[in-house]
Design goal:
45% of the residues lie in helices and 14% in strands. The chain is an alpha+beta fold and 153 residues long. Strands 1-2-3-4 form a 4-stranded antiparallel beta sheet, with helices on one face.
């Protein structure tokens, strides 16, 4: 007997609004061990969506989670705040920019890798140069940094 393949995390999250309350409550109990603290459906759906994605991400990238855990422990131990790096959008993010009346879409596909018009690029600046024909800061061009101080928005 064939069993259906388990749903992807995205599919699980997408179906949360369609689940009846008893199923949502059972899902909460399975993930959190008890009843939801409140009966607000949006609250429960959001927390479950986060938990489902957290579990999926943990399975896909345990090294990153371990590195972040060590950084958090070091921060707590020293009390020092690390210098903020530029904000990097997470994989799957789609960046939109209108330039010369044309809408351009760039998809983030991994650590410093992007896809634009079916081609892969190593930086947003390469893509900004491709679009404009001039040298641009990619993060500035796509609105990830403000012009004034170059800081992440």
């Amino acid at each position: 007997m064939n069993h259906p393949a388990p749903l992807t995390a995205a599919a699980q999250v997408a179906r949360l609004p369609e689940l009846p309350w008893p199923e949502l409550k059972a899902l909460w109990q399975r993930h959190y061990g008890g009843d939801p603290p409140i009966t607000n459906r949006r609250f429960v759906e959001r927390r479950l969506a986060y938990k489902i994605q957290e579990i999926e991400f943990r399975a896909q990238n345990p090294e990153l989670l371990e590195r972040n855990r060590r950084r958090i422990e070091a921060l707590i131990e020293t009390g020092a705040q690390p210098r903020a790096r530029s904000v990097a959008p997470v994989p799957g993010t789609v960046l939109l920019r209108e330039y010369d009346g044309i809408q351009h879409q760039v998809r983030v596909i991994g650590d410093a890798h992007y896809e634009y018009q079916g081609r892969r690029y190593r930086s947003l600046s390469e893509i900004a140069r491709e679009i404009t024909g001039t040298r641009w800061s990619g993060p500035l061009f796509f609105g990830l940094r403000s012009r004034s101080k170059g800081r992440a928005r």
